Amino acid sequence: MKFGFAIATIVSSWAALSSNAFVPLVATQNKNNVLSKCDNRAKPVFSTVETETQVDVQVPSSSDAAENGAVDDGGYANGVAAKSIPTLNGAEIKEKLERQLAKLREKDSKSPKLSKEDIKVVYEDDDIIVVEKPSGVLCVPGRDGFPNLAESVCEAFGCQMGRADMMVVHRLGMDTSGLVVFARSMEALRGMNTIFRSRQIERKYEALVCGHVEKDEGLINLPLMRDYEFPPYMRISTDDHQRALADLSPADVGKKLLEAPKKSLTRYEVMAREEYLGHPVTRLSLTSISGRTHQLNVHLAALGHPIVGDRTYGIHGEAAVNGGLTDDELETMVANPSRADAALQQKLADASKGGPACIHAKSLKFRHPVTKEDISLSTNAPF
């Protein structure tokens, strides 16, 4: 049984996923009388979206297969030009990774516990529930046991499986706000996993990015890899960086760092060219077609228009700036005369300091895994 009310209008937004979406906001129904209480165990998830073919950004030759070998001789890290990309051994990479993971755990520990009253339900029935995640809240359970959205939803609304981790079918990053689907029955869990795995779902994001994007629409096709200089973050993959991994083994640095580059495709559409506290920004609708880890953040940074408030992939962030590309690589792989320069990026970083990253999972379209009803949901971005 479903309950619904109100249709929200579309607001031009950032750069994540929405061009025209509608919003059936739905009131909650407490089903704890028929659904089990939940315990707290973690289960990782994937996220994907629709397919696309055309591209308008050059793809380097390492897009589909990893190569091993030497290093690049020029780079930028945290907004500062690097003289060379060092060859790192496994112990150095591990040490960097452990330091960064400790910082991330500290950040995760600040995730607040949400009450039922804090949770904004957009759609609910016996099989699925869709809620709007606030920025600054962990999405799914982790091994450290910090408060997270999945456990709060499970405790407040229940599920047939009785476990928060069994409700998870996809996730959003801690800094991202927007729509998240949770399964409440095993049939829905299996169905939603199939929907995401086979990309039978359209997810659009809204974002504000630095500077005015020149083209009204475009496709970014750049492969992603783990960044051995700034683990555990992502960067654009190049042949030189793949060859730099030649002498490393999974025993030294783990399997993830040595994975082949992931083909990654992002579609963007300009919704509006605006100002943010007197500085030029662009509101984008984004579709992460391939759904890779941090794909939108890295692609937009490489394009020269990082997300406003992104303190990981933006200027002087925790990860490599410009998606990890050097000036020469930017010119050959992502030529963009309207790229936001470092001065503008810094002004926007200062202006947005203390605020959330301007990225919002705005809309979802999919066929209900049990009733086969077409579901189309949307919410307004908070920026």
Low-confidence stretches: 1-37, 39-83
What Rg, in angstroms, do the CA atoms define?
A: 21 Å
* Main beta sheet: 9 strands, mixed
- Mean pLDDT over the residues: 82
Q: What is the H/E order?
A: EEEEHEEHEHEEEEHHEEHHHEE
Helix content: 10-25%
Strand element count: 15
Distance between the termini: 33 Å
Strand percent estimate: 15-25%
Q: With helices defined by DSSP (H or I, 4 residues minimum), what is the helix count?
A: 8
- What gross morphology would you assign? globular
Class by helix and strand content? Answer: alpha+beta
Instruction: Report the oligomer.
Output: single chain
Kindly list the characteristics that best describe this protein.
383 residues, alpha+beta, nine-stranded mixed β-sheet, 22% strand, disordered N terminus
Short description:
The protein is of the alpha+beta class and 383 residues long.
Give a written overview of the molecule.
With 383 residues, the protein is an alpha+beta fold. The chain is 20% helix and 22% strand. It contains eight helices and 15 strands. The strands form four sheets. Strands 5, 6, 7, 8, 9, 12, 13, 14 and 15 form a nine-stranded mixed β-sheet that branches. The protein is globular.
